[in-house]
Amino acid sequence: MIFYIIKKEKGNPKNIYRKIKAYYKINKYNLFDESYYLENNPNIDLSNKSPLDDYIYHGYREGKNPSKNFDGNYYLEKYEDVKSSGQNPLIHYVLYGKNEGRISGKNDLTYFKDMILENNSRLKQQEKIIDSYRRLFDVIFIDQDFHPKNTLKDVQDMCLEILKFVDNVCKKHNIDYWIDVGTLLGAVRHGGYIPWDDDIDIGMMRNDYNKFIQILDDEIKLNGLENVMDSRRQRLFNNGKSVYACIQMKYHTSYSLGMIDIFPYDYIIIDEKDMNNDFNEKYAKERREYRKDIVNTKELFDKGTYMSLKKSNKEDEILKKHSDKLNMTLKKSDWIIPGFEGSCTFRFIENNCIFPLRNIKFEGYEFKSPKNPFKYLKLKYGKNYMELPKVVLFHERRKYLRYRRNNHKVFRKHISKLKTVNDNFEF
C-alpha cells in the first residue's frame, strides 16, 4: 500500500502523508469493505495494488462505491464543492467532511436528521402559506357581507322558518331553548349562518326537552305542516351499535333531509374537585352503556330505523339507570352537561353561563341564546372561536339536493307555507 501511494504521488511528501492519514481513518471508521468492493467489481485488475488502492485512485472516478457505509456518488451529488474540486469523495469525507457534519450516504443517520430538518422547514413554510389563506378567509367570511344562493339559500331559508316555528311553539308552551353550537357560533361570529352551514342546532334542558317531545307532532298537525316537515329521533349510522337520539326535524323534498337537531342537556350535582379526566371517562362509559341498552331494546324503534318521537317508560328507565350513577338530575343545580343522546362534545357548563337566557340576533331575527354566549362558545370551540378553524368541516347534505329536479320549486312552496304559519301563529 505505502509503496503504491509513493509511486502514485510521485514522492510528494505532503500528498503521501495526506493519503496515509486518509487510509488510516478509512479503516478506523470501517468505510471500506473489501468483500463488498470485489463482489460488486469482479473484473478489476489487482496485479500490483490492493482493492482499496484501486478505489482511491481509480474506482471513485468510475462511480464505484467502497462499502455499504459510504455512497460516493451521493456525496458528490450532494456537495457540489467536492465534486467541482475533483477530490475523491471518501478521502474528503474522512479528512474533512465527517468533522463538518456532512452526510456519508442515505444510510447515515445524519441523512435522516437532515431530511427531517429539511422537511420541517418546508412544512413550516407551507403552514405559513395555509395560515395566510386562513387569515384571508377570516377577512372574506367574517368582515365582509356574504349571501347564499341556489340550493344553499333554499336550505338556509327553510331552516330559518323551521327555527321560527320552533320558537313560536316554545313560546306558546312556555318551553326554554337556546340556539346551540354551530348555530350560536354563526350568530356571534357572522350575525347568522356560518356561510357554508346548512342546518340549525338547538339545546334544551331535560324537562323542556321531554315537554317538547310530547307536543311537537300535535303542533305540526295543528298548523297543517304534515306535508312540509316531520320529526323523529334517529339512529347513528354506526353498524347499529350506537344511537343518535336528539329530535331531528326534517323537511320534505324529493330527498328528505334533517335540518334541525335539538339536543337535551342535564343538570348534574358534582364538586369541582371531581371535574377531571376520571369523571370524563365515567361519563363516556355510561354514555356507551346507555346507547347499547337503547339499541338492544328493539321495541323503541319504528321499522328498525327510527326511535319513536315520544319517549316510553322503558327508555326513561334506561336513562335513569345510567344518569343516577353520575348524579345527573332533573332539578336545577350549578352545573350542566350534554345528555347521553346527543352528539355534542362533553364539557361542564356553569348554570349561570346559560341562564337566564337572553336574546340574540340570527339572520335578522331574535332567538334565545345562553346568557354568556362568548364563554359558552369558548368552552366548545376554544379561545379562538372568532377565527375560522384550520380545518373547515362541511355537511354532505346539499350534494343530494343540488342536481335533483324541482327541489327549488318545492322549497319555495314549503318556505312560503311555513312563513304564513309563523306570521299568523296562534299562541
TrEMBL record:
Domain LicD/FKTN/FKRP nucleotidyltransferase: 170-382
InterPro entries associated with the record: LicD/FKTN/FKRP_NTP_transf (IPR007074), LPS_cholinephosphotransferase (IPR052942)
GO biological process: glycoprotein metabolic process
Record protein name field: LicD family protein
